Amino acid sequence: MTDPGTLTRLIVSGLLVGVWFLAPAPASAAPLPDDVGTLLECVKANLPKHSSVQTVEFRSLDRVGNERKIKARIYWQRFDDGLTKLRLKVSEPPDLRGTALLLIEKKDGVDMFIYLPDLERVKRVTSRMLSGSLFGSDFSYEDFMQLQGIGSGGRHELRDASSEPANNSANDPPVVDASLQVVVHHPGPESGSSYTRVVSYWDRESCTLVRSEMWESGERPRKILEVDPTAVFSSKGARIPGKLVMTDVRDQTSTHLSIDEIEIDVKIPRKIFSASALGRN
Q1: 0.85 cut: is pTM over it?
Q2: Angstrom distance (rounded) from CA 15 to CA 242
Q3: 4-12 vs 36-44: helix axis angle to the nearest 10?
Q4: Alpha helices in the chain (DSSP H)
Q5: What does the pLDDT profile of the chain (281 residues) look like in tens digits?
Q6: Is 141 in contact with 129 (CB distance < 8 Å)?
Q7: Measuring CA to CA, which residue among 56, 88, 68 is closest to residue 254?
Q8: Partner residues linked to 122 by β-bridges
Q9: 110, 146 contact by CB (below 8 A)
Q10: Looking only at Cα atoms, what is the longest distance across the chain?
Q11: Which domains does the chain have, with CATH numbers?
């Protein structure tokens, strides 16, 4: 039986560390299956083997159109034990330059640290802080952690898109395309998640993600993640969509994430994945 934590890592892995499985998969990819184990293998075929290094931009818009941009460098690596580590370091704007984030996945959870240049110290991010905004964007620490494939356990179920409620979005029409299948993730109580469920829509033929909805309570999702299928990088057999948008339905704000540069399966020094190295170049 597939481990829920492993499934979480694979079905959400790469949205920022490459977003590779969101793009069209190779023609040989099997249709999205009706069991978790086969789904795992189908999605895994679209992932990078070892690592990625990328330059990204977060462009956040508030409800009146004010804009704030953040640029960062992300180093991501999957190790021999199947667990991952990630380091993000901000280069722009000047007031955030040098701020760094480190995620270390463990078999029993995740260690998360942030370096704040003004304080010249490394601070541990606790489970109580997971719902907080990441650098003022619409991505919370929890969103970012799961988008890197570093997620909590919990329970998963597969559904058809037509089984989802018709009023599942505040502004967009419901997703009821018969070509889609739905993966519903119910975070475990030990995760500290603020979500009751995360509903993700997958294309049956390519095993690629189309849209995710993060639900807290009520009749509409709190956040919606959408992927631009037309902005695609291709590298070493991976096809990598370079743009996605996270919308906060309640607060009427959004953050556009774009990948400016990316390298796949490159060598990364292990020493950069340590809390003591966060404040260094």
Answers
A1: no
A2: 9
A3: 40
A4: 4-12, 36-44, 141-147
A5: 444 444 444 434 444 443 433 333 333 344 445 565 676 677 666 777 889 899 999 999 999 999 999 999 999 998 998 888 999 999 999 999 999 999 998 887 788 899 999 989 999 988 777 778 888 899 888 887 766 655 556 777 887 666 665 545 444 544 557 677 788 888 877 767 888 888 888 777 777 778 889 999 888 899 999 988 788 777 776 667 789 899 999 999 999 999 999 899 999 999 999 998 898 76
A6: yes
A7: 68
A8: 115
A9: no
A10: 53
A11: 4-277 (2.50.20.10)
Residue 182 tokens, joined: 């739905």
The 8-class DSSP code of residue 219 comes to: S
Tokens of 117: 């240049």
Tokens (6 digits) for 245: 């948008």
Which residue reads 């998640």 in tokens? 193
DSSP for residue 243: E
Instruction: In whole angstroms, give the CA distance from residue 208 to residue 140.
Output: 23
